[in-house]
């Protein structure tokens, strides 16, 4: 079992209490690791995907990668703004990510779309909890940031799932 690390806080004039900042740094640290993990899950898919609609899916994965990178930066900088020390290395991310490890042998478009949608759904659920936690702690700006990230992740989930959602076509039989 991994030992729980004490959040390192730097001296700051930030008005939130040290306790709240410590709790928010810990919360943001997990989301930073998850954002970093997703950054390379999307690249893994971008590099290795093959199959029908290759070019569209290859480009979509790169766009999702770029968006995840923006999330990495905004989460890390909120964390440092409240006095935290960002754990932003790939090594730290591998240890703290909320996502399951992405398979290295996936090839087909549907496989990548489905597997990435699992990651997006998992992070979406964790972000909802994080929004609640930040709200209860009284850190409105962290709550707002996680809400914004959640909105982006939910849109990404929609883009991924739209490739394979079962569509009811029974309306066609009416004419
Ligand atoms: Fe590329």
UniProtKB/TrEMBL annotation:
Residues 26-165 form the Ferritin/DPS domain. The lineage of its organism: Bacteria, Pseudomonadati, Pseudomonadota, Alphaproteobacteria, Hyphomicrobiales. This is DNA starvation/stationary phase protection protein Dps. InterPro entries: DPS_DNA-bd, DPS_DNA-bd_CS, Ferritin-like, Ferritin-like_SF, Ferritin_DPS_dom. Belongs to the Dps family. One of its GO terms (molecular function) is ferric iron binding. It comes from the Bacteria. Pfam families: Ferritin (PF00210).
């Amino acid at each position: 079992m991994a030992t729980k690390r004490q959040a390192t806080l730097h001296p700051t004039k930030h008005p939130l209490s040290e306790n709240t900042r410590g709790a928010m740094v810990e919360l943001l640290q997990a989301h930073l690791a998850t954002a970093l993990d997703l950054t390379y899950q999307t690249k893994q898919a971008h590099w290795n995907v093959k199959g029908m609609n290759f070019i569209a899916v290859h480009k979509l994965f790169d766009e999702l990668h770029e968006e995840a990178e923006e999330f990495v930066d905004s989460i890390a900088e909120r964390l440092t703004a409240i006095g935290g020390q960002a754990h932003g290395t790939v090594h730290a991310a591998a240890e703290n990510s909320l996502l399951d490890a992405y398979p290295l042998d996936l090839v087909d478009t549907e496989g990548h779309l489905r597997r990435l949608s699992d990651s997006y759904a998992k992070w979406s659920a964790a972000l909802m909890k994080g929004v609640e936690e930040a709200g209860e702690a009284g850190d409105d700006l962290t709550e707002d940031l996680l809400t914004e990230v959640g909105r982006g992740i939910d849109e990404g989930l929609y883009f991924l799932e739209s490739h394979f959602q079962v569509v009811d076509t029974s309306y066609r039989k009416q004419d």
